Amino acid sequence: MGFFSKLKEKFSRSEDKDKYLSGLTPSRKTFGDRIRALSNNYHGIDDELLEELMVILLESDVGIHVAQKIVDRFEENASRISDYGSMEEYFIQILREFYDESIVLPLNMEQDVPVVILMVGVNGSGKTTTTAKLVKYYKDQGKKVCVAAADTFRAGAVDQIETWAERLGVECIKGRPNQDPSSVLVDACRRAKETGADMLIADTAGRLQNKQNLMNELTKMHRVCEREIEGAPHETWLVLDATTGQNGILQAHQFTEATNVTGIILTKMDGTAKGGVVMAIRDGLELPVRFLG
User: Fold this and answer.
1) Strands 115-120 and 235-241
2) Is 160 found in the same domain as 36?
3) What is the pTM of this model?
4) How far apart are CA 177 and CA 127, in angstroms?
């Protein structure tokens, strides 16, 4: 099931529907409501409408190149549009097709070894909180989960994830302050195998994408995981703050070069987030969105 389909299903059957929708209000206000507002002065497909669609896409952080592709595709088939309703429906259809859920590989969480998920991203993107959410998410599915506190340099980072682990009733493998994070991952992988864990989620230190030594450290962490557990890390998820806009594209490029990023987790969607950057990342790197935060 694709990202958009899962999101729709979640909303349709969730008891917390109002909470989810209220959290996404900023994104809806900056995109959905503006699309619907076009009905007030709709006179068919003309240059004015195309310009309005372009502005809406740009202000939603889709990016100039992707926005132009979407508008061009929309204009190519303008003759099939008879009224505002069909215009809105067709525009949304183009966005869905542009994201192209069909080429998103499903998550393979059924392995003969512990599934290792590496959480990466810049400082303050929400990795530790998201790690805790994922632990609960997979534990609720009946998985035996353990967590690695591999952010050994930020003050309080280990205590933070350890506190979440205690609350959720899972084991936390941690190291000493300023210990080499790769060695923590080695210990965590071995412990996961010893205890028969289904999953190991590793919280890593935030790092700026332009700090080459820190990016090289990610490459090393990927390598030691692979040495300890076959195929590990099976997933490497880049946690992006939705409010960073087009800077997220640069982050995605740099992190992908350092490690095999397999998906995006977009956080802080309940802020002033626009989130359109995922379309640009999808277009440039073909990385799927795995979760919204």
Assistant:
1) parallel
2) no
3) 0.79
4) 19
